[in-house]
Write a structure and sequence with these properties.
Ribosomal Protein S5, domain 2; five-stranded mixed beta sheet; Heat Shock Protein 90; eight-stranded mixed beta sheet; binds adenosine-5'-diphosphate; binds magnesium ion
Length: about 350
């Protein structure tokens, strides 16, 4: 064995990047979540070559102050929390301060950003963790990230990427989920010059569902509504006739985050049991708001896993919301189409 040494920061970031950044879609996820946290009302994502050679994420959010640009790329630097106590009341999607340091460790990054109080924007370039440029530039209010050559300096990672078509479809799925979880934000997704998704941001979830899934699904929805202290559910339940052969259409978002969770899935499927055939899974889009004190999102760096401190309560609430929604269908004879 050789001598024990502390790793240098660039190596640490490269290793850490492996946990957060697996593929182009993970980069897009982190950067769009930052845009949402920055209060953006419109986000445009453009990719080429499945995102492997090129990704551009543009938002009209608050921008980053010139003097904060460098520190934004440092590991564990965040403007969103100050202490562990804040984790109980997380109002933002990000908080770990890892995305920008991770992405810039394994790709070539260009950032153009401007706050409304600044006359000039800032152009910043960083690649493989090494700063290249920090200068003035003309720019609209908001932030644009351009990410080139993902994993150019980590060949082992690059080898695990799939074909550009597969990577692009992961980004597309992600954009769908982002649009469904934030109907108040306009999302556009452009793949190889073609617009694949463009939501209006008018705040109507049903319009987003219509845009993404089309008329047949949008005209077969029942409303879900459930409101108890500490737990609130809104959204839409597909009528049993539009049930699908797999779970891909079980969309639920916990406190604005796309999540997969066995308790939630089971509650939804159990409530549908009497209505659907075996091996059919419901179409749902549910927004679940749970008091930050009852849910831990800090289980894994990607924050897709959740832990509840009262699983039974969560199960019951979701079961009831879905069950009531399905049984009240007589009361909602026809869900009107979006204009
Ligand atoms: P986190 O989101 O966990 O705080 P990140 O590494 O993703 O960590 O981002 C670091 C910081 O950079 C954020 O806390 C935020 O202050 C700033 N930032 C990143 N992206 C944007 C953006 N699109 N608009 C405004 N500020 C941003
Ligand atoms: Mg972030």
């Amino acid at each position: 064995m050789s001598k024990i040494q502390v790793l240098d920061p660039i190596t640490i970031d490269k290793i850490a990047a492996g946990e957060v950044i697996e593929r182009p879609a993970s980069v897009v996820k982190e950067l769009v979540e930052n845009a949402i946290d920055a209060g953006a009302t419109a986000v445009v994502v453009e990719i080429k070559d499945g995102g492997i050679s090129f990704m551009r994420i543009t938002d009209n959010g608050c921008g980053i102050d010139r003097e904060d640009v460098r520190s934004a790329f440092l590991r564990h630097s965040t403007s969103k929390i100050r202490s562990v106590d804040d984790l109980l009341h997380i109002g933002s999607l990000g908080f770990r301060g890892e995305a920008l340091s991770s992405i810039s460790a394994v790709a070539q990054v260009e950032l153009i950003t401007k706050t409304k109080d600044q006359t000039f924007g800032t152009l910043y370039r960083i690649a493989g963790g090494k700063e290249e440029t920090l200068e003035d530039t003309g720019a609209p209010d908001g932030t644009t990230f351009i990410i080139r050559q993902l994993f150019y300096n980590t060949p082992a990672r690059r080898k695990f990427l799939k074909t550009p078509m597969t990577e692009a479809s992961h980004v597309g799925d992600l954009m769908t989920r982002l649009a469904l979880s934030h109907p108040h934000i306009s999302f556009q997704f452009i793949n190889n010059g073609q617009s694949k998704l463009h939501t209006s941001g008018n705040g109507k979830l049903k319009d987003v569902i219509y845009h993404i899934y089309g008329r047949e699904i949008a005209s077969n929805l029942l409303k879900a509504e459930y409101d108890t202290p500490g737990l609130k559910i809104t959204g839409f339940l597909g009528k049993p006739i539009i049930s699908r052969g797999n779970r891909n259409f079980e969309n639920y978002y916990v406190n604005g985050r796309y999540a997969r969770n066995s308790i939630i899935s089971r509650a939804i499927e159990d409530a549908y049991k009497d209505f659907t055939m075996q091996h059919k899974y419901p179409f749902v889009v549910l927004h679940i708001e749970i008091d930050g004190e009852h849910v831990d999102v800090n289980v894994h760096p990607t924050k897709m896993e959740l832990r509840f401190n009262n699983q039974q309560e969560v199960y019951n609430a979701i079961y009831s919301a879905v069950d009531q929604g399905l049984h009240e269908k007589e009361l909602i004879p026809h869900v009107e189409m979006p204009e």
